[in-house]
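Quick log. Single chain, no ligands specified.
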Amino acid sequence: MVFIKKYSFGYIDMFAVDVSPRNGESFIYSYILKNKVGKNECVLIDTGPMSSSRELLSLIKKLNCSFLHVFLTHIHIDHAGSSGYLVNAFNDKATIYVHPKGAQHLVDPERLWLSSLEVLGELAVSYGKPLPIPSSRVYATKDDEVLNIDGLEIRILHTPGHAPHHQSLLLLNNLLFSGESLGMFFEEWNAALIASPPPFKYDVYKASLERQIGLSPKLLALPHNTVVGFKDYISVHLAQLQLWEKIAKNSKSIEEFVNTILRYDANVEKLWKTNLYILRETISTNLKGAYEAFRKQNNN
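-> predicted structure:
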């Protein structure tokens, strides 16, 4: 954990915290929110991987949080891996809010861990194995419900596609935490990337995408890796989706698809040229999922 940005939205302070593993600075962000005039309860949106759990807990304690409300956009171990560690540290003063399809995997994360090892390999090892969470501390959300947390109104939107257990969170009607349901944007390289690991459900993803566009938020807080203006970013994301779909349609193999993307998608080209292991692995995984999904769609 090497980087913190602070934002203020009226009575709310928000901290963007780099919770990346050591092989990937500024790759994964968590967001901590506090009501300046509330009861000192803290809202944490995504926890990051287990590998950053101790540093994140230390920061949360410095904020003097009397209660920790953890909202997970999804349960992939790079975004939810330290949930068990944090909940255990706060004991009965913490609650995890998660899509109902993800709840049981937090209580018993063994299957999630094995699946992560299968898909991510050594990258999963660098994130670390998650700890189980007592079922009494897990709250399964309802689609479109609004929760009031210490004066913060948080609207829950179930947004599957990137994962079946994905949800987005809307605050103040203009700040959207989209998880990976709207892709990624890396500020350092000014480059976007679709978040499409296998099995990528493109038709479901598009429905969630259209639903969130309909909200017309002003700002978008991304876990990979910054806060961006919604309108400008979403136009880039839509153009990238269109490009990948077109290239997949005209590619005879995954190798041809990847090589063509690297040649014609300036965003991916910039990220690939960083030569960072964590970025290259993520790009490869997402291109594989996207190719399989687009080819399946074209063959139907």
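Residues 277-299 form the longest helix (23 residues).
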